[in-house]
Amino acid sequence: GLLTFREAPVLLKAFEKLQHAPDVVIFDGQGIAHPQGMGLATHMGLWLGLPAIGCAKSRLVGEFEPPGRERGASSILRHHGVPVGAVLRTRTGVKPVFVSPGHLISIEESLSIVLQAAPRYRLPEPVRLAHLYVNEARRHREG
User: Fold this and answer.
1) Each residue of 51-73: pLDDT tens digit?
2) Of the four listed, 17, 56, 58, 137, which is most buried by Cβ atoms within 10 Å?
3) How far is it, in rounded angstroms, from Cα 131 to Cα 136?
């Protein structure tokens, strides 16, 4: 099924609890680089009225040339010839991530923000920390 229908209700409840709206949100999923043109980042950006970026470990659609091996190297991700995102190397010699704008942001701005948010690891720090938190909560619940 679609990730949005599973994840969005919980995410929307979490955003209601924030005292201050973020300037931009990075989601572990797709933006417009999606078979329907609207991944989790696009839906959430629309619902929240905030700039949103999708940053995923794999691609759902599109063709691309492999980016260079150095940190910061990128190439455009195209779906039916239309740019829908980019493939970004956040660490030298490590597999790239797939970045796509979700809402109220360009491909170029999305690339810049994701690269700034990933100073040491493959994934941007907000996404990486969310993974760590969820895995820890899951261990406590199951343990």
Assistant:
1) 999 999 999 999 999 999 999 99
2) 56
3) 9
